[in-house]
Amino acid sequence: METDEFVAFVRQRGLAVVATLGPGDTPQATVVAVTATDLGEVVFGAERGSRKFVSIQRRPEVALAIGWHEDEIAVQCEGIADEPQGTALERCERCYLDWFPVQPRLADGHELGLVRVRLSWLRYADTRPGSYRWEETFPAAADA
Question: In this model, does residue 71 exceed pLDDT 80?
Answer without folding.
Answer: no
